[in-house]
């Protein structure tokens, strides 16, 4: 029947149209561009690490740093890690990139030590894709050994959501990493679904409260009680607590009252080049 055939053709046509929307096509093209760019980025030395200070709330001293990956492309300038890290994870390039990040952070720690600076622990973000590769813990041990960095100066940050998707299989790798002597940080805490029993069993040394909770502290219905409860729980588990994304004096004051250990955010220091961070270390006491 002609009508039915016509109907099918239209329906199919519509489906095809929906599948190849211009918007999607653009996204697919952007994806391919990023993937292609990433394949050349390591060889072209387009990556840098920036370092964002963490400030101890009681003493005001710089007690740590987070290394954040920066990618400057020849054609499109800076591309945010929130854009390229997920693509690097999907195509597997996060593995060599992650190894570069670890080695570069350790090389930098060593260079600061060689200049006689009093170096604080540096936290490196690790993707679960890297964590689940056989031999990951061994590669961390090798990089520490080759760069001559004491393990306690390296922290590895893992985001809660991704880790909990396959909690059991991560456990043995985390234990191996702990046995090397590096510290483990649970990043973006509060955005995932960790059960209390996992939190107790996982060997995390530091818990980072997700920025969304910190930003909420300034809003009408902001809940300082939740942040206080997270801090209380972490303290009970003998974990250090870091608040990330601290931008206002009000947030800082509330975190101080709740006895948060350390803060990280634009209010106390933006991510900066290695030399800028060396200046902070050399200066001893920061602004606050
Ligand atoms: P993250 O690990 O949660 O890092 C914190 C992010 O918050 C960073 O964004 C940092 O620049 C930003 N930030 C710091 N202070 C403030 C503040 O006061 N306000 C606001 N609004 N933001 C602040 P960035 O550098 O764009 O990195 C985004 C994410 O990309 C990171 O989130 C991390 O998940 C990932 N990432 C960054 N570097 C690496 C890396 O070397 N390897 C891997 N696997 N992931 C990385
Ligand atoms: Mg992080
Ligand atoms: Mg985070
Ligand atoms: Mg994050």
Automatic annotation (TrEMBL):
The keyword Chloroplast does not apply. One of its GO terms (molecular function) is cyclic-guanylate-specific phosphodiesterase activity. One of its GO terms (biological process) is cellular response to nitric oxide. The keyword Phosphoprotein applies. Residues 31-285 form the EAL domain. Keywords: Phosphoprotein. This is Response regulator receiver modulated diguanylate cyclase/phosphodiesterase with PAS/PAC sensor S. The chain holds residues 548 to 835 of 835 of the full protein.
């Amino acid at each position: 029947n002609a009508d039915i055939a016509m109907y099918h053709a239209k329906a199919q046509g519509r489906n095809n149209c929906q599948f190849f929307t211009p918007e999607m096509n653009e996204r697919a093209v952007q994806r391919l561009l990023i993937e292609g760019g990433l394949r050349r980025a390591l060889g072209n030395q387009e990556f840098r690490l920036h370092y964002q200070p963490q400030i101890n709330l009681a003493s005001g001293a710089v007690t740590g740093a987070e290394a954040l990956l920066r990618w400057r492309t020849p054609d499109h300038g800076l591309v945010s890690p929130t854009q390229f890290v997920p693509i690097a994870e999907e195509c597997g390039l996060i593995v060599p990139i992650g190894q570069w990040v670890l080695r570069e952070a350790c090389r930098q720690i060593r260079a600061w030590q060689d200049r006689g600076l009093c170096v604080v622990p540096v936290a490196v973000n690790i993707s679960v894709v890297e964590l689940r590769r056989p031999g990951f813990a061994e590669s961390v041990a090798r990089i520490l050994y080759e760069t001559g960095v004491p393990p306690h100066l390296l922290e590895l940050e893992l985001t809660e959501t991704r880790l909990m998707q396959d909690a059991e299989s991560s456990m043995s790798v985390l234990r191996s990493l702990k046995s090397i002597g590096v510290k483990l940080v649970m990043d973006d805490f509060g955005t995932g679904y960790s059960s209390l029993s996992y939190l107790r069993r996982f060997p995390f040394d530091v818990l980072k409260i997700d920025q969304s909770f910190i930003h909420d502290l300034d809003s009408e219905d902001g809940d300082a009680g939740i942040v206080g409860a997270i801090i209380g729980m972490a303290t009970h588990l003998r974990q250090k607590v870091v608040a990330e994304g601290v931008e206002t004096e009000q947030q800082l004051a509330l975190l101080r009252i709740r006895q948060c250990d350390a803060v990280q955010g634009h209010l106390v220091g933006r991510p900066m080049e290695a030399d800028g961070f060396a200046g902070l270390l050399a200066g001893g006491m920061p602004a606050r």
